[in-house]
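Box 3.1 — From sequence to structure: HlyD family efflux transporter periplasmic adaptor subunit
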Amino acid sequence: MDEKKIESSMGELENKERDTKMGKKYKALSKKTIAIVVGVMILAPTGVITYTKFKDSNETNSELVSREREYEVKRGDIIAGSNGSGSLKLQAVNQNFEEPVEIGELFVKEGERVSIGDKIATISEKFINDKLEELNSQLERATATLVSTKNNKQVTVLNQNKAWEDKVQGSKNQYESQRNSLVNNINQLTDKLNDVNKKLEDVRRQIEEMQNLATARNVDENHVLQENSTVEDTNLLQESNETKESDAEEIEAKLQELKLTESTLLSEKSLLETEIKNTNQSLNSLDVERTKEKESEVKEESANREINALTNSELDHSINNAQKEVDKINEQIAKVNKLKENSTLYAQIDGTILNLNYTVGSTTSSEIPIVTIGENAKVFAEITVTQEEITKIEEGQRVNLIVSAYQDQMLEGTVSFINLKPNGQGSSVNYSVMVEISENDLKLLEGMTVSAQFIVKDVKDVLTLSNKAITLKDGKQFVQVKQDDGTLKEVEITTGFSDGKISEIVSGLSEGDTVVVGG
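Predicted structure (token representation):
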């Protein structure tokens, strides 16, 4: 009997059951009853369903149906959780050359399996050689610029120092020249003054001698007059006086001459002293001006240093930039030489080529890898979960999975990442959850479909029974246990954890017991 006929028969039986009392196994319609029993056995996960049809010879349209379901008490696990579905994702490993290059040759295709050490791609040899030639040319120009910049600074610094030293030395030389001239002038004037003083001293000595001589002559004359009073003596005295008068006049004339010389020398001395004084004042003024000039030079030197520092800083900046350019090009040359030594890209893992982003002759970039390899040893499942279920899921949560290609094998996994950015909007909002699948021996491929159950709670190795076999009376739970002789016995039970379909049996039943519903 096919499934539709079974459902039709079940409908008829349920209608008849509404006209009969529940709990009896059979109901007699007539003494002359022709019983036609059609037994249909439908195997279900939790029991056996039996359909019996009776036909009364007197009431041909009357049927009696009795339905009986059996559920076995088994030992097993009960799992409650949230469900979702999605597809497998391999752990992706991106591979690329360290620098952008031109692809010379490719050895793989998308979807192809590779092993560690397999060739993926090579760099164009022409690209390497052209790049090195270009960089070496740039290096020559950059090195020339660096040398020129350094020389420019050296010349500038030398010119700065020379200009300042020339100015300072010029001021110093001018001062020393003027000072030496004044000192020499003072020395010459001093020598002249000393000479005048000597002459003056000599003249004064002569004047004093002449004055003393004149005084001595006057004394002698008086003495002679007193001692010679005779006529003869008087005559002699007169002659002597005449001689002395002549000498006195000569002395007086000499004395006047000496005094005139003294006066001249005094005038000359006064002029020399005045000139020496003025020259000393000029010398002092020159020294004062030089002191001020040196103070000004110190300030000017400080200002020049700041100006020169700015200039030198700009020059240093230019040198640094030139040096950086040289260093940069040298680094690029080193990188290209390294690429030349390692011009072949090899597979780093065993896996499947998921993406091949370039063709021969194309130029790579740092942002887009040459190849993406899915690691066979590490597989993830990307599961779509509804907004009602996502709140029950957390990282580290255990997950049971069934891959469509392997329906008879359950895999285990762990939630590794929850993407809280929603997919969709309105009432159909979903979220993506990444599940890392535990190690297994299956050949899992990128894109295979998978269903998942995120375990919220579970109990292991407990007695289980279908909830359909349990009835409630006055807040207590009862079941009809089938005895060895086929009779039924009502037993009170205690249940524990339930997933909504199966319940844990805590007490009242044993493993292997058969519980009957209906009859």
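Summary of the box: DSSP finds three helices and 22 strands in the chain.
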